[in-house]
Amino acid sequence: MEQVLSALFEIASFGAIVVLVVLGLGIIASMMGIFNFAQGEFVLLGAYVTYVVHAAGLPVWLGMVAAPFAVGALGFVLERTVVRRFYAAPIVAMLGTYALGLIIREIVRGLIGGLYISVPEPIGGSINIGNMHFSTWRFMIIIITALVMVGSYLLLAKTRFGLKIRASLENPGLARASGISTPAIYGATFAFGAALAGLAGALVVPVFSLFADLGIRFLIQGFVAVMVGGVGSFAGPVAGAGLIGVLSAALPWVIAPVAADILVFVLAIVFVKFRPQGLIAGKGI
Amino acid sequence: MTHHDHLMSRRRFLGNFAFTAGAIATGTGSWVINADWANAADGPIKVGIATDLTGPIAYSGNSDANVARMVVKQINDAGGILGRPLQLFIEDTASNESVAVGNVRKLIQRDKVDVVVGGITSSMRNAIKDVIVARGKTLYIYPQLYEGKECTANLFCTGPTPAQQCDELIPWLVKNGGKKFALPSANYVWPHVLNEYARKVIEANGGEVVFEEYYPLDQIDFSATVNRVISNKVDVVFNTIIPPGVGPFFKQLYEAGFLKNGGRLSCVYYDENALSINQANEIEGLASCLDYFKALDKSDPVSAKIQAEYDKMFPGTFQFTAGSAATGTYRALKLWEAAVKEAGKLDRVGVAAALDHAKIAEGPGGPAEMVPGKRHCKMNMYTAVAKGGAYEIVARSAGLVDPKEC
Q1: Exposure string (b/e) for A58-76, b if CB count within 10 Å is 16 or more?
Q2: Rounded to two decimals, what is the model's pTM?
Q3: Per the database record, which ranges form the Leucine-binding protein domain (chain B) (predicted)?
């Protein structure tokens, strides 16, 4: 019983981490039709901002608050200067954002000397119930992920801004004719997706430590999640991320970890073969 | 802006971008460092360094290159070798075997170096050794701790082997940790071969291996493994998981109460660089066994002097540590210097014959000597334990430890 409970907790916490990381990627992919290969590096930047704030002697939570704003701002600038030129050519957009990611990653590698650096969690330790130990910070991540998910959903589904985003996605021409400035909406959406990645990086850096390849680690998983979940909606990538995260954390409990790693991808490919539209098909929320 | 203009500007942008990327990719990565005096009749002796100056393990490669700069400068300041100055050629192996082969070929064919020191990972050594030793007909010295079994002629190893890292450490772990060992490992050659040897030593000392398990190199969630460690009441986690996985793994072990319940962590590549991966309390008591620790500067004046010289020449992020092959690079160059002096010439046969039994009286961690016929190096080994974010030496080998290779 105890073992089952701790297994469920660990699996849920890793699932939450993957959802958190994929959220921004999914929003940009679904709402803008751009596969942002620099998303992993936005996660890395969020982690880096948190580290810098901590290294300056300020509390870690302050860095976690600052990270989404800093990364969102950078996302906004990059959308204005670079990404915007690629909307007509999604393949070129992949290469372009990959290049951006590469530049960001190597700059951060230089800044941290290629080392692995630990960043403490704002609330450390573990919650002990009997013989079971639950990491406090992982518990916090589950809660924050749930809050961010609900918040993002409300933003997209219930606000005027969300309506404009969806309008620009479904019919850009009509949206423009109705007086919506689609370039401004795209800029804001990209910045929002980047900010979510920044937040994800800030929250997970105490768990994984800061290193230049932090983002890459999640990029492949993120794309598989979007593919499995289905592009076009908000719920699709989130559902896909939950599934991939839970699978990759749960399989090592039952089979050899090396086989589990491969099996996650095999299952994803088989799933997409039989349901190419993904878990949740269609556009919208 | 017309559609046509738009296309043109994108093409131009991509063209410029490709040019810049190409310039960044090829423009850097080669250094030639001449001696202040280069007027000897025979010209300088050429030393080649091939190491990972860029890529994920660049922090190691840059330390190794720095050590080479330091040792070559010291030798030149002391009059060079055989009255000739040393000229240092440094090439980047870029943590990428195909790039490395090209760059090492430059050292051999263009620069015609007399010796190559370098390579950090075993896959890198395997990729470049043929270029150097077989086709290049040049001497090669590999400086990193590794899994052993490299017995190629004209290839000498100056880093610790599994025997050197396990023979002293594992009995200590059984005494100071317990008998039940877990061997969680990254899935590549070094952990597989090291574990094979470690298992023998564990069992010979009355311990048992509860589980030995391999993980993908980029796995970063170890909840299932941690659960196995806790539920099997493992005493010692003898870890060969590498970054990035090792940080989250140790953290999850700590959060699950492994250390609080008296568990002992051990990891034989852990040096001063690795201390920053986790917060100090998460790895309290971790035991490592290497040929050198910074903590030796309190008891060994020679090590303290080398460390101080390095820190003075290269203040900054790239530390002089054993795990990054910096101490192995130091030994490699000094042993080679001794061999060239004995041989009195630079031809490969003569130098290799002298290097086969070369000795140095002073080095980081103490003296070192090659085991004749084995092309591996005997050295002192130290067991150290992490306490509050630094190492404390808890045991020293009685003398030079045999590598037991070839």
Answers
A1: eebeebbebbbebbbebbb
A2: 0.88
A3: 44-389
Q: Return d(Cα A248, Cα A267) in angstroms, integer.
A: 11
Cis before A90 (ω within 30): no
CA-closest candidate to residue B405, choices B168, B179, B147: B147
Residue with the two structure tokens 């990645």? A197
What residues make up the domain containing B203?
A: 163-290+384-396
| Average pLDDT of every residue of chain B | 91
Same domain, B150 and B215: no
Q: Best residue in B251, B258, B271, B319 to probe A by mutation, most A CBs within 10 Å? A: B251
User: What are the tokens at A242?
Assistant: 């939950």
Summarize pLDDT for B377-395 with one digit per residue, the tens: 999 999 999 999 999 999 9
Are residues B279 and B318 both part of a single domain?
no
A14 has a chain B CB within 8 A of its CB? yes
Query: Which residues of A are less than 8 Å from B257 in CB distance?
Result: 126, 128, 133
Nearest to B317 among A115, A209, A217 (CB): A115
For residue A186, is it within any domain? yes
CA distance B76 to chain A (A): 29
Would you call B360 an interface residue with chain A, using a CB distance cutoff of 8 Å? Answer: no
- Calculated CA dihedral for residues B217, B266, A205, A254, nearest 10 degrees: 50
Categorize the per-residue pLDDT at B181 as very low, low, confident or very high, splitting at 50, 70 and 90.
very high
Closest CA to B50 of B144, B178, B137: B144
* Structure token digits, residue A42: 């936005």
B180-186: strand order across its sheet: B208-215, B180-186, B236-238, B264-266, B287-290, B382-387, B390-396
Q: Provide the greatest CA pair distance for chain A.
A: 63
Q: Is the pLDDT of residue B89 over 80?
A: yes
Residues of chain B contacting residue A120, judged by C-beta atoms under 8 Å apart: 279
Q: Does A257 touch chain B (CB under 8 A)?
A: yes
Task: Record the tokens describing residue B72, joined without a space.
Answer: 């070559």
Q: Is residue B214 part of a domain?
A: yes
For residue B325, is it within any domain? yes
Establish if A128 belongs to a structural domain: no
The residue written with tokens 């992920």 in the block is: A145
What tokens were used for A121? 């969690």
Residue B93 maps to a domain: yes
pLDDT in tens, A80-115: 999 998 888 888 989 999 999 999 999 999 899 888
ipTM of the complex, rounded to two decimals: 0.89
Taking the Cβ of residue A253 and every Cβ of chain B, the question of whether any pair is shorter than 8 Å is answered with yes
The Cα A56–Cα A67 span in angstroms is: 14
CB contacts, 8 Å: A255 with chain B: none
User: Is A258 in CB contact (< 8 Å) with chain B?
Assistant: yes
In this structure, the answer to whether residues B254 and B357 fall within a common structural domain is: no
B-chain residues near A217 (CB < 8 A): 218, 220, 244
Tokens, residue A259? 């086989």
Cβ distance B232 to B180 under 8 Å?
A: yes
CA-to-CA distance for A29 and A23, rounded, in angstroms?
10
Looking at the 3D structure of chain A, how many domains does it have?
1
In A194-213, the residues whose Cβ lies within 8 Å of chain B are 207-209, 211-213
Q: Are B39 and B78 in contact (CB under 8 A)?
A: no
Q: Which domain holds residue A171?
A: 2-119+133-274
